[in-house]
């Protein structure tokens, strides 16, 4: 088990380092932050002053080494826009993003999985078809279309909810719904498939033949076995929630990390972008690591395989 | 008026709070508050106009927060009007003396004096170690650093662009200051009202921990003070009760950053916002059709242009550039993309030049003449080599469709112009090959053609500093414009500069005047200025009908 965890941690670290390196190189190859931040009308000597001050004329390998060295000391650099520590700017925005992503994740789990299981158990019926159609609509409509549609209905037409901003809890309703709907659709579809596959397995037939009640078959045999693929997809969804927040936060003017990322990329605010990407990569890696560990808990066969190795 | 749940709740809340408040607070409460959806509040996260050199910054910072000794007449002819100074006079070609308005209070309660003005134009605040053109800085003893605050690297350069030759400001007495230039300059008064004399509280600066902390909550004399500023999110200004110009009509003004056009429009339609700025022309109909809403449009002191690069092999020949200027049907663009809500200017000239008698009457944008363009290309021996056109994704309103139309028009006369989409200004201005033509805009800030012709295309303008274009005779004439006090000679110089930059050796291709469109609740009766700035002083707030 220790070897298993160690190898996963090593891979996680490597992934984070790769993301950092990639972001570092790409950001510096795609435009001069000095010119972007100072605009087109500023004299060239001003631009040069800025480049000198931020070390942008140093060879890229030297910039990279300095960056890594600072990172090792917990220094994520300063924002070029307002000269605050990049980590402070990011940390200020995390609560707002969590205010959307956590309720959205809870809604996805609360509605997506039960809906999928229900549809699988009612396979071929009208209820099954209805769930499938709703799920397909949910995950095929892009979030920016869904968001605008919800605003049009609930804010513009009905006047029941705010269209954007973050000044009250009501302002969170539409963005949370927008973020949830796609995920509910995805989870419903995967849960249904996983359950249908498990329900057709020989051990389910054996359990039924032995006279185990239908509800016990589902609870004790079907659900635990269907959980592994569902956990896999939930792991991906947790990791991608922050990425999904970018679009939703933009549509609803929600002051979270997604908005900060957009603004920082546009302005080539290198330290802030790198900080956010690092955080997103870390969330991805941790959620995948958690999924890997959950596999072992959910499926004893995987534990045994790991031990044998 | 349409009432929805939030309107009713707001009304109930306002009523309930009014019942329990003391009389003097009820009087304050009766002032309305407004919410304005904007694409961006400020670009660089400070509320210091010297650092925030942008159109969006003008909207958030003028005239509600910052004020100068002379003010721009935002709702009138855009010329100078008394502000924190009540009168001004020329002492000589290099010196202007101003009498300060007495009894002006900063947001912190201090009275504004000459010391604050001297500080506001000091090396400590603006110029750093830079020296004025044509002489040494005088009055250096007035500007010794007392706090060691580190101003942003860009600021001294920006300050010198606005005041290239300002040697210093002298406090003659408590209510009198003198602006001393190192060289003669007929545009000193213009620079004063074009944001060049804004005043900040010296004490507030000294008490701030850092420049960044100060610049997020500057203490000024404006009708509204900074109540809350959340970078990239919102800015709330609150009424300054001791404002010298009388009681501000609004309790708060909140600029909310809503980057998506559709979200701004939806917010306006749903009643979330009272104003929605930066609307593209294609959204005007949606807003105008909604009950109780209207769109205010106005042309602004900004012309859209394309900048030519002389180091492109084909564009070295002025005939090719001239052909490009004659291939464009500007009226068709204004009609197709702007619904005729803006106009084709008389070259790189603005109406404000008329107030200083520097407008060249009879001068026009290059004639649309495709046949002439083809003829010029033939004379130039142009063989269809590609000319790259660097374009940003709608940094300017309608930029991409405008770029596509231009390219088609150029291609119609035989030019092979290829659009190269770029992501940011760094890529647009990169001095790598190949580069041919790019988009830009030229702003006029004072009633003199020095802005933008000299400022943007002169020897120290971005175009020449970026090695895109240069012309020896043009540069000599820039010197005349900057230092001569002979009006006739200057007018002759600008006429010749227009001929060079738009006909003989084109530096740019003039397109059309820019315009802004603001959606708003009709019953507010507010009027938009011909600028990005939004005036919420009492003189432009008649109140709800």
Task: Tell me what you see in this structure.
Chain A: Belongs to the binding-protein-dependent transport system permease family. Chain A: This is Glutathione transport system permease protein GsiC. Chain A: It is found in: Cell membrane. Chain A contains 13 helices and no strands. Chain A is mainly alpha-helical. In chain A, helix 5 runs antiparallel to helix 6. Chain A is flat, with a radius of gyration of 24 Å. Mean pLDDT of chain B is 88; it is low at 1-28 and 135-146. Helices cover 33% and strands 20% of the residues of chain B. The relative contact order of chain B is 0.14. In chain B, strands 8-9-10-1-11-16-12-15-13-14 form a ten-stranded mixed beta sheet, with helices on both faces. In chain B, strands 4-5-7-6 form a four-stranded antiparallel beta sheet, covered by helices on one side. In chain B, strands 2-3 form a two-stranded antiparallel ribbon. Chain B has helices at 5-20, 23-29, 55-61, 114-120, 123-127, 154-162, 188-196, 202-207, 211-216, 261-270, 284-289, 318-326, 330-338, 352-355, 370-380, 399-412, 425-429, 450-457, 462-465, 472-483, 487-504, and strands spanning 34-38, 70-72, 80-82, 85-92, 95-100, 166-173, 176-181, 224-230, 234-239, 252-257, 275-276, 293-308, 386-392, 416-422, 437-443, 508-521. Classes of the chains: A mainly alpha (309), B alpha+beta (545).
Individual helix count of chain A: 13
Radius of gyration of chain A: 24 Å
CATH topology of chain A: MetI-like fold
- Fraction of residues in H or I helices of chain A: over 70%
The CATH class of chain A is Mainly Alpha
Based on CA inertia axes, which overall geometry of chain A fits? flat
Give the biggest sheet of chain A: none
Low-confidence parts of chain B? 1-28, 135-146
In CATH terms, the superfamily of chain A is: MetI-like
Distance between the termini of chain A: 9 Å
Q: Output the radius of gyration of chain B.
A: 25 Å
How are the elements arranged and paired?
The complex is a heterodimer of chains A (309) and B (545).
Chain A: H1 2-29, H2 33-38, H3 44-53, H4 60-72, H5 86-121, H6 126-140, H7 143-157, H8 173-199, H9 202-209, H10 214-251, H11 257-266, H12 270-298, H13 300-308
Helix pairs in contact in A: 1-12, 5-6, 5-8, 5-10, 5-12, 6-8, 7-8, 7-10, 8-10, 9-10, 10-11, 10-12, 11-12, 12-13
Chain B: H1 5-20, H2 23-29, E1 34-38, H3 55-61, E2 70-72, E3 80-82, E4 85-92, E5 95-100, H4 114-120, H5 123-127, H6 154-162, E6 166-173, E7 176-181, H7 188-196, H8 202-207, H9 211-216, E8 224-230, E9 234-239, E10 252-257, H10 261-270, E11 275-276, H11 284-289, E12 293-308, H12 318-326, H13 330-338, H14 352-355, H15 370-380, E13 386-392, H16 399-412, E14 416-422, H17 425-429, E15 437-443, H18 450-457, H19 462-465, H20 472-483, H21 487-504, E16 508-521
Parallel strand pairs in B: 1-10, 1-11, 13-14, 13-15
Antiparallel strand pairs in B: 2-3, 4-5, 5-7, 6-7, 8-9, 9-10, 11-16, 12-15, 12-16
Helix pairs in contact in B: 12-15, 20-21
């Amino acid at each position: 088990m220790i070897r298993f965890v160690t190898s996963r941690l090593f891979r996680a670290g490597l992934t984070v380092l790769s993301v950092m390196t990639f972001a570092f190189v790409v950001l510096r190859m795609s435009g001069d932050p000095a010119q972007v931040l100072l605009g087109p009308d500023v004299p060239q000597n001003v631009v040069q002053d800025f480049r000198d001050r931020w070390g942008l004329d140093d060879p890229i390998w030297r910039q990279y080494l300095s960056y890594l060295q600072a990172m090792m000391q917990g220094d994520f650099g300063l924002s070029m826009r307002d000269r605050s520590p990049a980590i402070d700017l990011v940390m200020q925005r995390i609560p707002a993003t969590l205010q959307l992503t956590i309720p959205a994740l809870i809604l996805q789990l609360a509605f997506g999985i039960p809906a999928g299981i229900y549809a699988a158990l009612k396979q071929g019926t009208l209820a099954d078809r209805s769930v499938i159609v709703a799920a397909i609509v949910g995950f095929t409509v892009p979030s920016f279309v869904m968001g605008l549609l919800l605003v049009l209905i609930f804010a513009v037409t009905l006047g029941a909810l705010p269209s954007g901003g973050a000044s009250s809890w009501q302002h969170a309703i539409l963005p949370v719904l927008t973020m949830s709907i796609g995920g509910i659709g995805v989870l419903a579809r995967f849960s249904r498939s996983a359950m249908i596959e498990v329900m057709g397995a020989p051990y389910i037939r054996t359990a039924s033949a032995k006279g185990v009640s239908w509800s016990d078959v589902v609870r004790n045999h079907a659900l635990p076995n269907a959980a592994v693929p569902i956990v896999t997809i939930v792991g991906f969804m947790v990791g991608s929630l922050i990425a999904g927040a970018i679009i939703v936060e933009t549509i609803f003017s929600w002051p979270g990390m997604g908005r900060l990322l957009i603004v920082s990329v546009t302005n080539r605010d290198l330290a802030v972008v790198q900080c956010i990407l690092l955080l997103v990569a870390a969330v991805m890696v941790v959620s995948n690591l958690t999924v890997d560990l959950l596999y072992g808990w959910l499926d004893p066969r995987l534990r045994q395989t790991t031990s044998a190795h | 008026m349409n009432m929805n749940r939030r309107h009713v709740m707001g009304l109930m809340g306002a009523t309930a709070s009014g019942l329990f408040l003391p009389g003097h607070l009820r009087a304050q409460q009766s002032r309305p508050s407004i919410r304005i959806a904007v694409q961006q509040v400020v670009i660089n996260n400070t509320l210091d106009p010297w650092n925030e050199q942008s159109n969006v910054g003008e909207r958030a910072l003028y005239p509600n927060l910052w004020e100068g000794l002379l003010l721009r007449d935002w709702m009138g002819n855009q010329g100078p009007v008394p502000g924190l100074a009540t009168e001004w006079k020329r002492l000589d070609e290099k010196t202007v003396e101003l009498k300060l308005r007495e009894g002006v209070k900063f947001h912190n309660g201090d009275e504004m004096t000459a010391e604050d003005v001297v500080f506001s134009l000091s090396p400590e605040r603006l110029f750093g170690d830079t020296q004025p053109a044509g002489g040494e800085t005088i009055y250096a003893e007035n500007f010794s650093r007392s706090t060691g605050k580190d101003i942003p690297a860009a600021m001294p350069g920006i300050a010198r662009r606005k005041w290239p030759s300002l040697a210093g400001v002298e406090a003659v007495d408590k209510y009198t200051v003198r602006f001393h230039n190192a060289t003669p300059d007929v545009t000193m008064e213009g620079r004063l009202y074009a944001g060049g004399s804004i005043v900040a509280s010296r004490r507030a600066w000294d008490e701030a921990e850092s420049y960044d902390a100060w610049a997020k909550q500057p203490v000024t004399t404006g009708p509204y003070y900074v109540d809350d500023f959340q970078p990239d999110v919102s800015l709330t200004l609150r009424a300054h009760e001791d404002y010298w110009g009388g009681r501000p009509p609004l309790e708060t003004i909140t600029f909310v950053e809503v980057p998506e056009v559709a979200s701004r429009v939806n917010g306006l339609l749903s009643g979330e916002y009272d104003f929605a700025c930066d609307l593209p022309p294609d959204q005007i109909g949606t807003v105008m059709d909604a009950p109780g809403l209207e769109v205010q449009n106005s042309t602004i002191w900004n012309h859209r242009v394309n900048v030519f690069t002389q180091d492109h092999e084909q564009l070295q020949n002025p005939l090719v550039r001239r052909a490009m200027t004659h291939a464009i049907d500007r009226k068709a663009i204004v009609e197709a993309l702007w619904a005729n809500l803006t106009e084709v200017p008389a070259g790189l000239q603005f109406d404000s030049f008329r107030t200083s008698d520097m407008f060249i009457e009879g001068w026009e944008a290059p004639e649309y003449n495709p046949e002439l363009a083809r003829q010029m290309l033939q004379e130039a021996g142009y063989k269809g080599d590609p000319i790259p056109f660097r374009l940003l994704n709608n940094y300017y309103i309608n930029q991409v469709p405008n770029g596509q139309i231009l390219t088609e028009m150029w291609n119609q006369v035989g030019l092979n112009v290829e659009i190269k989409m770029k992501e940011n200004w760094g890529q647009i201005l990169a001095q790598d090959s190949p580069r041919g033509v790019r988009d830009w805009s030229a702003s006029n800030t004072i009633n003199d053609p020095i802005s933008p012709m000299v400022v943007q295309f002169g020897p120290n303008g971005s175009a020449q500093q970026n090695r895109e274009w240069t012309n020896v005779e043009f540069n000599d004439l820039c010197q005349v414009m900057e230092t001569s006090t002979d009006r006739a000679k200057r007018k002759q110089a600008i006429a010749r500069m227009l001929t060079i930059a738009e006909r003989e050796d084109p530096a740019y291709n003039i397109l059309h005047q820019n315009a802004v469109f603001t959606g708003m609740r009709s019953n507010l009766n507010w009027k938009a200025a011909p600028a990005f700035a939004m005036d919420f002083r009492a003189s432009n707030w008649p109140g709800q009908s």
